[in-house]
Write a structure and sequence with these properties.
The protein is mostly helical. The chain has four helices and two strands. It has a domain of 79 residues.
Length: 119
């Protein structure tokens, strides 16, 4: 089945469970990842008022402490309600030459343009 047909079934609540991943357009912030699926939009199959309120509070603040507290509340409720079940994670393995000036980054978003070859 092609993705548009799968997405239509997900968004019209014709699936009980599905396995999905999300690239978030390369934006590594909770607003582009978790909020996509927990803000009572077509992709939110949990539709929990407490989660939606906490996500909205975190998404609309620039204060770090406020965001952390709001997202903690949302993630705790997601765990209680089993809105999301992580099934796997990706491992990234790298091998490089000692002639390459490059270091992996903690977030695994690699800025290859910063790499250079030793002379």
């Amino acid at each position: 089945m092609q993705y548009p047909q799968v997405l239509e079934r997900i968004q019209s609540s014709r699936t009980q469970m599905y396995m999905h991943n999300w690239g978030s357009a390369g934006i590594f912030d909770v607003t582009a990842i978790t909020s996509t699926f927990f803000r009572k939009n077509n992709d939110d199959y949990c539709r929990n008022d407490k989660i939606t309120a906490a996500m909205s509070k975190g998404d609309t603040s620039i204060d770090k402490a406020t965001r952390l507290a709001a997202y903690k509340e949302a993630f705790q409720e997601m765990a209680i309600q089993l809105c999301q079940i992580p099934l796997f994670n990706y491992g990234a393995f790298f091998a490089t030459s000692n002639k390459l000036n490059w270091s992996p980054t903690p977030d695994e978003v690699h800025a290859w343009y910063r790499a250079s070859w030793s002379k």
